[in-house]
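ingest -> validate -> predict -> emit
validate: passed (alphabet ok, no gaps, 606 aa)
predict: started
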Amino acid sequence: MSRFALVLGSHTFTDSRLDRLRSPVHDVGELSRVLADPEIGQFVITSADNPTAQELRSTAEEFFGGRERDDVLLLYYTGHGIREGDELLLAGSDTDLDDLAGTALSATVLKNLLGTCRARRIVLILDCCYSGAFAHRMVPMGEQRVHVQEFFGGRGLTLITASTAREYAFEAGEVTEADPMPSVFTGELIRGLDSGAADLDGDGEITLDELYQFLFDAVQLAQPGQQTPCRWVYGARGRMVIALRRPGPRPPVAVSSAPDPVRLPAARRQAVAMAPAAVTGAAALWGAWRYDLVSLGFTGGCLLVAALAGMAACLLGETVLEADGLRIRGWHNTLVPWPSILAIECRTTLFGTTVAAHRANTAVTRRVVLPAPKRLRPFHPVGFDDDVETLRQWTLRRGSPAPVHYGRTLLPLRNAMAVTLVALTLLTGIDHPWNRSNDIASVPRACRTLDKKTANSLVGGGTATLINLAVIVPREPPVESTSQQSSRCDWTYAQLFLSAGDVALQYTRYQADADTSGPRQAKQGVRKALAEQQRKHSQVTRPGQLANSGGFTAEASDRSAITVVAARDNIVVTLTFTSANGQLSMPDHAQLLDIETRALHAVKPA
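emit:
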C-alpha cells in the first residue's frame, strides 16, 4: 500500500477579474511539509504552485493514473472555484472567465478521473471559492447554495470542503480584498495534523472522521456561525487513517458541545387512514380465494402489504436527529451518518407525503424512507414543512448540507399502473374468467369418451391380441352410472375367464357453496383423489402436468395401477388403470394423457 498526495494552489491570475489570493502560497508549502513528514502523513507529495489550467489537468491525470487498489490518494486544491450554471470549475493561473471551458479544470473532468482510478480510498479536500455565471460578480468561498455532491461521485471517496470560508468581502456591490489573513480552514487542517490535535481519541492515529470533527469544531470556534466545514461520503467504508500523531504529549482539544437529539414522531393518525386500504386488500384476497382469481389475489396482496407496512411505520416508527447522524427506528434501528446523506426528497405516496433520505455510503445510492415526518393527504399541516426544514437545518449544521427536492406527484400513479399491468397479465395468462363465468351444470357421459375401441387400445385387449398366449377380452356391457353430478364408465377385462384388470373413467361435478367456488373445489378434489389412491396402492404422485385443454393434471402410479386426475373448471376427470396379478401390461404414458385430454375436451359449458 502506497500513499500519494497532490497539493495544488492557485493565487495569481492573468484575468484581472479574478482577485489575487494570498493564503495559497503559505498553505501549499505548509500542507506539503506536514503530509510528507514520515512521522505524520507519510505521503509521497506532488505539488504545483500557481499552475496553469493545462498543468492542472495534466497533473491530475498523471496523479490518478496507474494506481493500485490499495493506494491511498489525497488531492488538495486551494484557489478560486468558479460556478457556471451547474458546473464547478477550478481556476488556474491563466483562467479566462470568457473561456472557462478551455482555461479551467472542470468538475466533470475530475469526476471522470476519479471514476476510472483503481484506488479504493480517495480523499478530496477543496478550499476554494465559487463564481457565478456573471464575470463581474464573485460568489463567496464555499457558498452553501453550491452543492458539491452534485458534481463528484465514485467509490470510496470522501469529499471535504471549506464551506463559507473566504478572504474577501462585498463592499458597495463590488468584491474587494479584505486584510491579508491565512485561510482559517487550511490553517486548522495544518495545525490539527502537525500538532496531533486532530487525534481526538488519543490512540496515535488520526482518522478521517477525527480530522473532520476536529476541523468542524475548530473552525466553528474560530468563526462562530460564519463558517461550517462540510463533508460528504461516497461509498467509503471502514476506518481510514489519514495521518499519525507525532510522538509526544497530545495537546488539549477544544470540542464544541453536541446538540441535544430532536425527535420527529410519525403521524399516528395516519394508521387510521390506512385501515380502509388494508380491509380492501384483505377483501380482495378473500375474493381471489373464493373465485380462484390469481390476478385479484396479487392486487389485494400488494394493497394489503403496503397498508400494513405503512401502519407499522406510523405506529412503531420514529426519526431521531442526533449528532452522529439520522437514526431511524422502526422494524430495526438504522443510523445514517450525516455525510452519507446526499439529498432529502419529499414525495407523494399512496397514503400521504413522506420523506426519503438519499444515501451514498453504500455501493449503490439508495433511498432510506423515514417513518417521520409523514402526513395525511390531502391535508398538509404546517408541521410537515417545519419537520422538513428542521431536518435540512440539521444537515447544514452538521456539515453535510443536503438540498430538499420534491418528488414527482405521479409516483403513486406509476406504481399503481405497474401493479395493474402485472394483474392484467395474470388475468389474461392464468385466470381466463371469461371462459368460466358460470359453473358447468352437467357432466358428459363417461362411456362416450371411454368407448370399446378406446379401452381396448389402452389395455391391448380384443380378439386379435394375445398376451401370454391367451386372449384378453372385455366383459360386456360396461358398467355405467350417470347423473347430473357424476358419470362413471367401468370396463373389466378377462383372460381365460380369469380377471385380468379394469379401466375406469369418471366425471365428477363440484358445485359452489357459500365459501368455495366450484373450480377451487375441483382442484381440491384432485388432491383428495390422489391421496386416496396413494392410501390404497402406496402410489407415487407426479403432480403438475398440464393437459392440452388447459386443465390441471396429476398422476399416481405403481407397478399394478395408475391413476390420472385432471380438473377443468368445476369438473374432475379421473382415469384409472388396474392390472390384476400383472396380467395386463402397463399402458404407454402418452396414451393415458391422450385419453385424459379427450375427456377434458368433452367437458363443455351447458
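Confidence is low (pLDDT under 50) at residues 131-155, 164-180, 463-469, 543-551.
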